[in-house]
Each structure stands twice: as C-alpha cells, then as structure tokens.
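Dear U.,

For the methods section draft, I wanted the exact inputs and outputs in one place so we can describe them consistently. I've listed the two proteins in the order they'll appear in the manuscript figures. Please don't edit the token lines directly; just add comments below if something needs changing.

First protein:
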Amino acid sequence: MSQGIGHFVFGVGATTGVLMATGLDKKIKNTEPIRIAGGIFAMIPDAGKLIPSLDFFHDGWPADIFWLHNFLDNTFDPKDTALNSFWLIVFMLVTLIIFWLKNKGRT
C-alpha cells in the first residue's frame, strides 16, 4: 500500500503531464485547480479508510482508473516505504519544473 502522499503527488504529476501532452496548458489560463484535483482524484480509492463501506473499491483493477492506484499499492510500493514516496515526489517536481519552463514566458 503506497503512502497517501505518493498517490497525491503521482496524480498531480500525471495530470500535469496530460495537460502538457494535450496542449490544454496553453488553452486554460489557471491549471492549478485541475492539477490539485488530479491529486485528489488519485486518492479516491482510499475513501474506504474514512468510510468503511467503500473499502471494496480499493482493491482490483477499477482502482487503477484513479491514476494507477492499485498498481502503486500492490506492485510499485507494496511495503508502503517512504523511499518510494520520495521518488514519486521527485516525479511530480520534475513534471512541475518542465511545466513551468514550458509556460514561463506566457502571460
């Protein structure tokens, strides 16, 4: 089970990458709320920790719809290590730096 911060930062990084790949970063003036929503979206399968009746949703392939949640939990980081969360944070920072460099001249 990957740490919650890992899911969030992967969601932010992946959303940022999708915005750049599709060119929507040029069309949408303020993408920060969309990127934060992507991080929250990645954590939706963990709602079962707050509402136990939703716990069924956490395991299985449908959880991968939420930015590869099941893959991160069971394949990438099954032991819930801080080191793997660190690398996901690095991924997010790199995508945000690329995003900033790509859009720094835009007003």
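Second protein (the one for the lower panel):
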Amino acid sequence: MQTITLKIDDSINEKFCWLLNHFSKNEIKILEQYEYISDDDYLRKIDGMVQSIKEARNEPIKNGVTLDKLEW
C-alpha cells in the first residue's frame, strides 16, 4: 500500500472525505492528520527509516545501480 500526503482546502474537505469513504478499508485507510508535516519529519517517524538511510549512505558507490538499470 502506498501513502500520499494531500493538503485539502477546507471548502472541499467534507466532499473529498465522502468520496474516500466509498472505498473499502482494505483499499484506502484515512490517516487523520490536522497539521502538515514535512516529508523529512514523516520519514523520521517510520521505525528504522533513519538507520536505513544511514546504512545506505555508508554503502560503497560501486554497489549502486545506474538510472538505465532501474525498473520504473
């Protein structure tokens, strides 16, 4: 499941939530958040994310993958 962050204007919030509520809980889970947080702050809250980034920074460049080898 992917997570996205949206800023929704108060004028359409009720209609937008109405639309989202028509999906099953297996398809969409609404995470309540009343204040915007930066992507950096969000990622820091995920268990193990900071450690994973630190480990990735220490990985030798030769272990990296060039853009032409990535599967998008």
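Candidate sentences for the figure legend, describing the second protein: The two ends are 17 Å apart (CA to CA). The mean pLDDT is 87.

Thanks,
Y.
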